[in-house]
Amino acid sequence: MFSITKFLPGFKATCITVGTLDMFLASTMLVGGVMNEMAEFNVPTNLLASPHYHDAMFWVFLHMFMIGGLIMMLGILAENPVKQVWVARALVLMHSVYFFLDIRTSDNYFGNALYQGPGSVVPVFIDLFYILLFLRLSFSAPVKKPEEMAVV
What we know:
The protein is mainly α. About 65% of the residues lie in helices and about 0% in strands.
């Protein structure tokens, strides 16, 4: 029988994918210059010139890079299926907070357009993608390893 779950990534692959993507996106922001990248969202010039804003945005993207690394490590090291489900549930909650913060400041019907332009909704879609990936994992039954199965 055909099953789509065969083609969906498991816990380890999901965590490595999400972690790598977070690290890549954060790196592009840091390498491209935080203020140059933020200028694309119509941030006022006087704010872009502020060393405080630069420090805050640098911290945000460095933090995103570090969290990506942490998610990758969780994917690699968490082998207990029950703990994987709980990690996935925690990651759903974390990314739901990021989703809320990103949607309220983006340029859309629900947002206040603090950051403007079509690019401001990209983080919202990335958050939603992560939520769906981890939501699927948080309600999937933990799969027992062959050595944990009882021999009948």
